[in-house]
Design goal:
There is one protein chain. This protein is mainly α. Helix content is about 55%, strand content about 0%. The protein is built from 12 helices and no strands. It has helices at about 5-40, 45-55, 60-70, 80-90, 95-110, 115-130, 150-165, 170-195, 200-215, 220-235, 240-250, 305-310. Helix 4 runs parallel beside helix 6. The chain is elongated, with a radius of gyration of 30 Å. The N and C termini lie far apart (about 100 Å).
């Protein structure tokens, strides 16, 4: 019995599809074989290449080898250490955006790792340097720039200090927290000086009071006290001014002249607070290893217990903080009026014409 042309064509079509399907499946397996073949070395060989490249300062070559480990052996014995070394290599290569991505990934993938403190530390140091894609001007007066990344850095260090107080990075992180805290307080003084130079006493007093309220443990308190004494005296509030002068006499006599008048710092050229330390100021960032216990961090200052205890007791305000302090040519951001028992801003309208509304 002969097959009809229609049935014959159908059989050919089915046969063609079957062959095509087999070819597609074979191509799929070929692709898988290609992927395996493209991993030209074992994970240990890739890691050896990465280590040698890091020792020679060849950061890009190290990054390539470490990424190969993470691509071809994501669950292998070197996967976790490869990510730690990748963080280090990316930092040395000044690829700060990649650093932040890698530290976040490490904390997400290995929340119980003994090296989470390292990831937090590097993340904090990176944020402390500023926006990842921005030019890093380490000698920039940090109190007069965008402080968004300083706040992120503070949070990173705070998490490290609170959760890993015995970490070799804890004391270093704590000192950075204190520096950032003092720098935020200095931001307020920059604004207060701006108002003083424009004879706007209520606004100057408000910014100084902000230091008392939110940065009571900062190095900015002495100058804030002097500003409050001076501003209250200029406003005719002698009793309040004398109270602040008494505080100056007891604790900060350097802010009083011999005749009892207040000595003020009205310039930004030299300030009394500690400046935020740059991302390189504590020395070269070291590699982290799951197998090493000898690293003691870059910290070198007062005892670890003292600095960690001091940092544990500070916090940044979470409401209505400025992003940029005023420079000599800019205007400070508005502030809610704090309760100072002072005249209202409206009563000084004649002095407030140049203050932003």
């Amino acid at each position: 019995m002969k097959s009809s042309p229609t049935k014959f064509a159908a059989a050919i079509a089915i046969s063609t599809l079957a062959i095509s399907g087999c070819a597609s499946v074979n191509k799929l397996f070929d692709k898988e074989r290609d992927v395996v073949v493209s991993a030209e070395k074992s994970d240990s060989a890739y890691y050896q290449d990465a280590s040698q490249a890091l020792d020679k300062g060849q950061n890009r070559e190290a990054i390539t080898a470490l990424n190969n480990i993470r691509t071809f052996y994501p669950t292998g014995q070197y996967a976790q250490q490869a990510l730690l070394d990748l963080i280090y290599a990316q930092y040395r290569a000044n690829d700060f955006e990649a650093v932040l991505n890698s530290t976040a990934e490490f904390i997400r993938l290995y929340p119980n790792s003994r090296s989470v403190d390292y990831a937090l530390y590097v993340q904090g140091v990176t944020n402390m340097g500023g926006a990842p894609k921005a030019s890093r001007l380490f000698n920039l007066n940090q109190s007069q720039r965008d402080v968004t990344y300083l706040r992120l850095a503070f949070q990173d260090f705070q998490t490290l200090v609170n959760n890993y107080p015995n970490s070799p990075y804890a004391a270093d992180a704590a000192q950075r927290m204190l520096a950032i805290y003092n720098d935020f307080a200095e931001n307020e003084l920059v604004a207060a000086r701006w108002y003083l130079k424009r004879d706007t006493m209520v606004a100057a007093a408000n910014r100084a009071k902000w230091v008392f309220q939110y940065y009571p443990q900062s190095n900015a308190v002495p100058e804030a006290t002097a500003i409050l004494a001076y501003a209250n005296e200029r406003l005719g509030l002698s009793d309040t001014a004398n109270q602040y002068k008494t505080l100056l006499q007891i604790n900060y006599p350097q802010y009083l002249n011999r005749d009892g008048s207040v000595r003020l710092n009205t310039t930004n050229a030299k300030t009394t607070t500690q400046k935020v330390l740059s991302a390189i100021s504590f020395g070269k960032l070291g590699r982290a290893s799951e197998n090493l216990d000898s690293y003691q961090g870059q910290y070198n200052g007062q005892t670890r217990t003292q600095v960690i205890h001091s940092a544990s007791g500070i916090a940044l305000p979470t409401t209505d903080t400025p992003t940029v302090a005023p420079s000599s040519d800019s205007k400070p951001s508005r502030r809610p009026n704090l309760s100072l028992d002072l005249p209202t801003a409206e009563s000084q309208a004649g002095h407030m014409n140049d203050v932003p509304r």
